[in-house]
## 1
Amino acid sequence: MKERTLESAVGLFMLCGFAALVYLALQLGEVSFLRQGSTWEVKAEFDNVAGVKEGAAVQVAGVTVGEVVDIALSDREAALLSLRLDKKVKVPVDTIASVKSQGIIGDKYIQLNLGGDDELFKPGETIRETESSVDIESLISKFAFGSAK
Amino acid sequence: MSAAIEFDRVVKTFAKSGGGVQTVLDGVSFTIPRGKTTVIAGGSGQGKSVTLKLVLGLVRADSGRVLVHGRDITRAGGRELEEVRSQFGVLFQGSALFDSLTVFENVALPLRERTAKSEEEIRLLVAASLRQFELAGHEDKYPAQLSGGMQKRVGLARAMQLKPSIMLFDEPTTGLDPVMTREIYHLFARTQAEFGFTSVIVSHDIPKIFNLADQVIILHRGQMDVFSSPEAIQWSEKPHIREFVKMTMGDIYQSSVVEK
Amino acid sequence: MVVPSQQDFGIPRSFPPCTALQPTFAMTSNPLARLGNTGLYLLCDLGKMTLFLGKAVRGVFRRPFRFRELLRQVHFIGFGSLAVIFFTAASTGMVLGLQGYYSLNKFGAEGMLGSAVSLTLIMELGPVLTALMVAGRAGSAMCAELGIMRISEQIDALDCMAVDPFRYFITPKFLAAIISVPLLTAVFDVVGIAGGYVAGVGLMGVSPGSYFQGMEGSVTNHDIRLGIIKSFVFALLVVWICTGRGYFVREIRGAGFGAESVSRVTTQAVVLSSIAVLVFDYLLTAVLL
């Protein structure tokens, strides 16, 4: 009898622990292997991606549809991001990708303004029409001292 | 070869807490014969317990050899030490029963860990030995629920499980009342007659313990004096032995009267 | 027959136990010698602890493995700590939620609350506070248990029965801690995030959507991995220091004797393991972040 309670208690504890771990991994960490099958990747080239981190969200109209999986330097010395997107998201070739931030000091994310073209990007292709990070310092100095310059 | 245990010029020192070095054993040599009972006596702090720990390999000698059935335990390590130790049964001063295990589990421990016996066989063996030590009915109690005398008997039962060829007793009667003490001595005599092991008893229960002894070793200031019988102690010329005798002599007669 | 003892060649048979390195009278008047003596003692102590860890690891490979004992220890360390972890995590999460709200409110960035609370919990407070709680609750008990087993000669008894005390009951404690602490940390994180939700969303009126959105957007796999690595390392540190101190209770300088030595060494073990957790927290963050 006593052995039974011991085993059930340990079982309960393990269950709680693993449930918490799974919640953290799936809900927050976005374990990629689970979604591998239903995603595809497209690249996007920016002049400046300061502040964008791996794992940053990719949004369409405010809805998160994917994440940044890689940040590298392209051949022509610009920033090349790899975006992993949901299979359901179709990206027309006249789409514009821009770096946005959530509030002034919030995290950076990538926003896709989907175009209207019938032709779509294929996996691995590169979006070239992009808007880079807004440099807040230069923005502020332009606002404050712009007229003086 | 008739020696069960042989000390060959063993030196053991400890650092004193106030600084300096205390020599506990200063080049001591003696032998403990097989199948006999040897009592190691001496005042407190004269190294009685250290001698036992040397035999068990729990403490290593600074120099010299300790031979157990001809094998040098001071140089043994790992597997060899385990082999030598498996010939020993030890009854510790405080019985050293495992607090978290019941009486049954304590006695079964050596069988479970050191033999390939089935649980059923172990159950029968333990039950038999608990009956032998008059512990039947206490299987499911924890050591803390037992009296001192019963704890000693459980400790003895546990030590006997693997049929050791040498039994070591560290202060077996400390903390027991006279009735219990006598009971323990009877138990010794009985079990030794039955199993024929070599027994080494470390004790300061001086006159009474001599009733059991075939050989007596008295430790004094790092030296040992070996006597072939308790009576031989009385005829010793050495001043510290004479003093020792003077201190305990009267009690021998008195205690043997009490024993009768 | 003349057998040359090893001392004849000037080589001591074995190293003296660390307590043997007591300061002598001559040394006490010489501060430099006293410093050297203390240094040697600490080095010797560290060496023994390393050997202890090695033996505990070796115990994993020794048969028969005591699964039941492992289960008992997971029950004690893991299940037994659930309640204290739950309350610590809930209050920590709620405080973080309130504090975070007041700080972020000044910048109009309440949307960051979820992200702030979850990152703090996952990377820092979760692993550290869980380890400290386990050290205080289970570590102290393990240390006292081993200390008592040492002074009542139970460990010697195991040695004499040729039963490896490491395989028998020390290694199961190591494994149980290494299994339990990361799971407790995960529970801590989740309960803490819920606590932050209650305080931030429930009391302060941050929108639930932005709380979770901010959290999911900013927590990366790397952060979670860092938290888990930390909790493994902390588990090992706590169980190592606590069992090791108990095991060597007789050889620790200044511990005294008997019951008093166990109480002193237990206090020492909890303090040491807490400090080790905090130091390693900084080191791991610096190296892995």
## 2
Amino acid sequence: MAEFHKPKALTDAPLHYCPGCTHGIIHRLVAEAIDELGIQGRSICVASVGCSVMAYDYFDVDCVQAAHGRAPAVATGVKRSDPSKIVFTYQGDGDLASIGTAEIVHSAARRENITVIFVNNAIYGMTGGQMAPTTLPGMVTQTSPYGRDVNTVGYPMKMCEMLSKVDGAAYLERVAVNNVANVRKAKKAILHAFTNQVEGKGFSLVEVISSCPTNWGKSPEKALEFIQTDMIPYYPLGVYKDIYAEGGKN
Amino acid sequence: MATTRMLFAGFGGQGILFAGKFMAYKGLIEEKQVSWLPSYGPEMRGGTANCNVIISDDPIGSPIVNKPDVLVAMNLPSLEKFEDSVVPGGKIFVDSTLIDKKVERTDVEVFYVPATKTANDMNIGTLANMIMTGKLIKEIPGFEMDSVDKVLGKIISARHQDMFEANKKALETGYSM
Amino acid sequence: MSEKVLMKGNEAIAEAAIKAGCRFYFGYPITPQTEVAAYMSKRMPKIGGTFLQAESEIAAINMVIGVSSTGKRVMTSSSSPGVSLKSEGISYLAGCDLPALVVNVQRGGPGLGGIQPSQSDYFQATKGGSHGDYHNIVLAPSSVSEMALLTAKGFNLADKYRMVCMILADGTMGQMMEPVAIDDIVIEEVEKPWALTGTDCKRPRNIVNSLYLKPEELERKNFERFAKYKTVEENEVLYESYMMEDADICIVSFGITARVSKNAIVAARAKGIKVGMIRPITLWPFPKKPILEAADKVKAFISVEMNMGQMIQDVELAERCKKPVYLCNRTGGMIPSPEEVLASIEKVNGGEQ
């Protein structure tokens, strides 16, 4: 039986995330990928703004904390400064799909050789549960108290679909962490996204459908069910682009 | 010559900025103090263009030429706009091919130079600016043709050496007019 | 000394930056500073450097943050509206104690304003300009040579103090050509043990961060930063004193208006009016001491600026209201003429205003 131990690329700091939040799982998957590729000593994390703002406390690598939405631009600077470093951003949906839309689209267009971990839980967690660019139609949040009305506030942003039309993007996959099978797939995708960077293959993004029991007003278990019943149907899982895969485009 | 403040003005594309740059480099090579300040903005894209050039024996304060000693006008709007700003006793050089109008001021010295026609006749149609500049060098005390080769060598890139002779010819033509 | 060549101020900034060891430039086109970007786009690829035209000013300054956090020299340049967009990133640079060189070739404002030269970003530059308690070192060149020299110095100061150093120029300074020889540039190397270079699994990780959720920590951080600013104020003030020995009237002016003022001073002296000038070269730290000392000797100050009167407030603070301070200004892209400044001098000399 395999021994369970903490990845080296995680610090000993206790995570501040709410009970049942899946950020912890995703942190672990990222750290495992770093360990497995043996890149801890040359990895640099770009933390964003949102629940994962303090990612720099948890990843045991050099870290820079970016302004809201700007992580891909900061990562561009870090990577261009020394292309031998492994540079990744860890961004939420408000950060990446709202205030930082321009930065993510243009980093992809430039095929920046970076890895983006995009955590989509359809809500602004850190500020207490406001509507996100990825909040589902009809979903109630603090700033959409009658449910998201697409006629007045528009439709959710499907980032993998959108970025798949950007010629520069090399690898885009959407995964979820609501059950063991999906967590395994998520691990594979994250490892692939880091491997791409190590091999100089260019812009790789993994969108992770995540839960927010606290702000969804659900128990952790019900929140995971909601991923399956509501989130995944709107945000279908799968590889949206992999230019190096067999039959891959572009 | 303590300080000569010059204003070159005309249409974008007439080589106004280049003529100014030529004079500035001429001053630099002759170990004078110089400054060159172009107009910039939308007028660079097809409208009017002008540049201020100061050549001086002393350090230059403001690089802005509000009251030129020398005005080179290569189109009518420029002459109309700047005629009154020339200092009394100053010199105005008019491209008489493009400007029918005579200078109204009587307290300045005026030189009418058919620069554009001459350039066209010589098949160097784009170099009316340098014909005007040649005339200017002739008429301003203290300016000589001696350094022309060196100046052209500085401002014409090696790729365009054919332009060297044409520019020199234009300057000499202007100087002889 | 190498041979002098004619260069635009914007080009002189770019070349001096390269000579000062800057190999990373991020920018976005805006008049009247675009020559900086154009120059960099030509030169950087040939010397193994990086030129990147970002998708926005915001992205550009964040790319600057990225490179600076790895310990390398980096710059961006823009003009007024673009600098407003960069302001967020400038605050983060300050909050992370990251060095960087930011160039503002000013144009008239507010809003989209105009494209003609202006000094109306004085407040923005010298008072921080974005949110939070912080300062930038602000250098105000008054010639093409100074555009080059102060750019090189700016990189050294930025590294030495881990601060943003801003070159506050204007459209005239950027567009004009003067003879310049860009040599004798000294790169003052400093150790950057804080830089993100990868831990190599041999040292504790470095964190570049401006977030302090505990107010006690943030307060302490700000106290530390302001202790550093005090050192800068004590050691880095630069100014030019022009004809001040016997002056009855002191002009305070920087950049292009200082040059216009020199013409006016020469003209005024020809009329027997004893006028001189203190030209701040560092706008922050502001040359408070020489201005206070001048207050005991002159009968009045004239602040000559291309805005509605911004630096005049710092002049009044510096001389502690000992003598009256008058404003001679144009704004919106208009440049005062030497005659206008002379008229102001004559008025003040005659006791009017």
